[in-house]
Amino acid sequence: MDIFEIFYSNRNEEQSKSMAKYIRYLFTFLGLKKPERAALSKEVLKAIIHNSETTEFFINKAIGWTLREYSKTDRKWVENFIEQNSLDPLSVKEGSRYL
């Protein structure tokens, strides 16, 4: 699963133009509003499962950070995700920091 492909395939050209204009064209926008980004983010978070068996410190740390950030959007989903999946203790520690 390619994270960029998920977001770029859902790009809204019309919306991205107004978003880019608002920030004076300093950044590239995909034209995805918060509810759409949140829904797509769940798909990205599911990609974590493919990397959950690694012993690589920075991958496990990144998984935890991703879960922690998403917990600001959907706390219950992150709680369930951590309970239902076998994650490295470091990922659980980082991911559950705001729970």
Question: How would you describe the overall organization of this protein?
Answer:
The chain contains seven helices and no strands. The model has no long low-confidence stretch (mean pLDDT about 85). The longest helix is centred in the middle third of the chain and has 15 residues, at about 55-70. The protein starts with a helix and ends with a helix. The chain has about 100 residues and is mainly α. It has a domain at about 45-99: ARM repeat domains (Serine Threonine Protein Phosphatase 5, Tetratricopeptide repeat). It is about 65% helix and about 0% strand.
The main β sheet shows up as:
none
Discrete helix count: 7
The average pLDDT score comes to 85
Gyration radius over CA: 15 Å
Counted beta strands: 0
Helix content: 55-70%
Low-pLDDT ranges: none
Write out the CATH superfamily name of the domain at 47-99.
ARM repeat domains
Q: The CATH topology of the domain at 47-99, please?
A: Serine Threonine Protein Phosphatase 5, Tetratricopeptide repeat
Identify the CATH architecture of the domain at 47-99: Alpha Horseshoe
